[in-house]
Amino acid sequence: MEDKRLRFQQGKQREFLEEVIKERFGTQTALGRFLGVHKHTVKGWVHEEKNMSKSTFQKIVTKYPFYKHFGSSIEEELPWNWGQKKGGKQRVESIDNLSAYLRYVRSFISNNSEARRAKKVEIENPLLDQLIKEDVDLMSILAVCIQTDGSLVEHSNSYRIASSSSDSVLINFVQALLSNLSRFNPAISMEYKGVRNVTLTDKDLGKKLLMLSPEYRTYPIDENFQPTINFLNDKNIQTKIWATRFAFTTDGCISLSKQGKPELNFACYNKILSEEWQKFLTQFGINGHVAKCKKSRQGVSGVRIYDFRSIYNFYKLGGFIDGVKISKKSTRYTGIEKNQLLKKVINLGVQKKVLKKYGAGRIRTPDLSVSAGKIISAECLGPLGHCPVH
């Protein structure tokens, strides 16, 4: 049966969509993803420049029956092609063999597309080479990077994978990682206000990512599909370590208060995901709590770690990704390498807290040459960072 165009009472189509967006989706873009249309299409409906279809209205009210009462505001059901310009249809009608013509047109589209994709450029990256050498599961690392500083959305009949960062170390790594995992070339945008974006449209890679986590958005449209890191549980130890390092590098920070109190933070506004990270980190002797935040939609802001022993354990894993600098969001540490500040926090903790309480003879200053991957349990560490074994 042919779809219809709906003509609402003046202002009612706008009212209907604005309520749905405000109460259920948050943005026009999110509603567009749910409906499978571009945000500009949604914008046209909201401004009542275009008449939304009957199937679109039914899709929304089937999912959210609360809005069915807007159906009484529909004045008329119009033909699907109501208001359509006839120029294109007249041209098609004038073609004798339409099937042959369409095959001819599609051949150009297909050939040009394949030609662009065939020119695969191999991107070298020392950090990626290191992960491959350590037998790290690259799909898991990509999933963590997309959850923290990226996105995965449906795009036409495929999936668009994207990541953004103001740090060249991170953006170059993600570009090389996407190139390694996909048969297509990722695109990287020009720098805008210090931030660069790397994007890739790949149906197969998108499906693989969704097998690891059914959702990558902080606030999912469907509450039954939540982002997760449970896929890391059955991975090898090196994958778990690097996943932790990348997560804290992209969405984490280290700070030192004026009173000398250290704080290691991981930002995450999804309650389930924050709780999963809190539990996951305990296997490395990193103990934190899920921080509450009244301003966030789910009432949390991530994982907070104040215990020096836990921060020391993170340091012994390798800390943040080497070379990544603190962004302009920080008012005190902009431009400093994250690991440089982490080292300062560790040294101050050893000097001011540990030495003062236990004496210099029992404490060994952390060695930066220790390779990532040596796991230090809370039992092994001893009092406030003393590690007699490692």
What does this structure look like?
The structure is a single chain. With 390 residues, the chain is an alpha+beta fold. It folds into four domains: 4-79, lambda repressor-like DNA-binding domains (434 Repressor (Amino-terminal Domain), Orthogonal Bundle); 87-118; 126-221, Roll (Endonuclease I-creI); 237-385, Homing endonucleases (Endonuclease I-creI, Roll), CATH 3.10.28.10. 44% of the residues lie in helices and 14% in strands. The protein is built from 15 helices and ten strands. The strands form three sheets. A four-stranded antiparallel sheet has the order 3-4-6-5. Mean pLDDT is 81; it is low at 354-390.
Which CATH top level class of the largest domain fits? Alpha Beta
Q: Low-confidence parts lasting 5 or more residues at pLDDT below 50?
A: 354-390
Within CATH, the superfamily of the largest domain carries the name Homing endonucleases
Q: Strand count, sense and closure of the main sheet?
A: 4 strands, antiparallel
How many discrete domains?
4
Rg on CA atoms, Å: 26 Å
Strand content: 5-15%
Annotation field: number of helices: 15
CATH architecture of the largest domain, please? Roll
Strand order of the largest sheet: 3-4-6-5
Number of beta-strand segments: 10
Structural class: alpha+beta
Chain-averaged pLDDT: 81
CATH topology of the largest domain: Endonuclease I-creI
Order of helices and strands: EHHHHEHHHHEEHEEHHEEHEEHHH
Helix content: 40-55%
The separation of the N and C termini measures: 71 Å
Shape annotation: globular
